[in-house]
Design goal:
InterPro entries: TPR-like_helical_dom_sf, TPR_rpt. It comes from Chryseobacterium turcicum. This is Tetratricopeptide repeat protein. Helix content is 33%, strand content 26%. Helix 4 runs parallel beside helix 6. The chain has a five-stranded antiparallel beta sheet, with helices on one face. It has a four-stranded antiparallel beta sheet with strand order 1-2-3-4, with no helix packed on it. The protein is of the alpha+beta class. The longest helix is centred in the N-terminal third of the chain and has 21 residues. The protein has two domains: 161 residues, no CATH class; 89 residues, Tetratricopeptide repeat domain (Serine Threonine Protein Phosphatase 5, Tetratricopeptide repeat, Alpha Horseshoe).
Length: 284
């Protein structure tokens, strides 16, 4: 009899708990992921909810229009009255269903502790075998999320044992509320948003070089151009940009940049013996 009563209360409590959470779910949405947390360290059980539209599976993963199935991040906090209250809601923080391409790994290891929301996602485009994983650490502050850290690993294929690794922090970006879509798509992606400074210029030049080696020419070009806008005397960046233009068969641009590279090597008193032979061959 005692076990029966305990079972009854467990079922009743679970139903009441689910009802409490369900009160926060907008019409036409359902829970795709539910994760316990204690983001404010008050020893109360809080919740991360990721919600999807009930009709999202009616849309193909590859669509001819620009509409996407955004998913909602909902954060619920348990108050001192043992009731839940909504502290955050947004459609702009976590990736949409289509955002991972062929992968279904949308929010690996999501957590929210000490006001830091952290999750990883894998993007596996439908065209080709390349893919990359991204890990976001977002700080919750004044009812908004701000980028704290960003880590990316780019793989040319599933057998790539030496992925290109990118590690960035909030000091590399202007402080602004985080938007997953602005950070990853269009003309305002992370490489466009990044601020080049004395502390990161050498690192970013190396990253641009590695992107060039991985045939990610667009990202390499954006980074190199931003570097040279801020540090026009940076010799090796001119060499990398010239190599990129040559690779893209923009021969006149490449020659101009090679000549700029040689000129800076001379004016800065660099060892001219270190100029690669290909440079002289390509400016003939």
């Amino acid at each position: 009899m005692k076990n029966l009563i305990q079972s009854f209360f467990l079922i009743w409590f679970g139903a009441l708990h689910s009802q409490q959470l369900g009160n926060f779910i907008p019409t036409n949405y359902e829970i795709s992921l539910k994760k316990e947390c204690d983001f404010n360290s008050d020893k109360q059980k809080d919740y991360i909810l990721i919600l999807s539209n009930k009709k999202e599976n009616e849309r193909p993963l590859i669509s001819t229009d620009n509409n996407i199935s955004k998913r909602m991040l909902l954060i619920l906090k348990k108050n001192n009255n043992n009731k839940y209250e909504k502290v955050f809601e947004s459609n702009e923080i976590v990736p949409c269903r289509e955002c991972s391409g062929k992968s279904d790994n949308l929010y690996s290891d999501i957590s929210f502790n000490n006001y830091i929301l952290k999750f990883s996602t894998t993007n596996y485009p439908f065209d080709g075998n390349r893919y990359f994983t991204s890990t976001y650490s977002l700080k919750y502050e004044d009812n908004k999320f701000y980028l704290e850290k960003y880590e990316e690993k780019f793989y040319e294929n599933a057998e790539d044992d030496n992925p290109l690794k990118v590690n960035l922090s909030n000091s590399d970006f202007e402080k602004r509320p985080f938007d997953f879509y602005l950070f990853n798509f269009g003309n305002n992606t992370w490489e466009n948003q990044i601020i080049v400074n004395n502390k990161n210029v050498a690192y970013l030049n190396n990253i641009a070089f590695y992107y060039l080696q991985k045939n990610q020419n667009n990202i390499a070009e954006i980074l190199l151009e931003k570097i040279l806008q801020n540090f026009p005397e940076r010799v090796v960046a001119w060499l990398n940009l010239a190599d990129l233009q040559w690779k893209l068969e923009e021969r006149e641009k490449a020659k101009t940049f090679y000549e700029k590279y040689i000129s800076l090597m001379k004016s800065q008193g660099k060892d001219l013996n270190k100029i690669p032979l290909r440079v002289y061959e390509r400016i003939k």
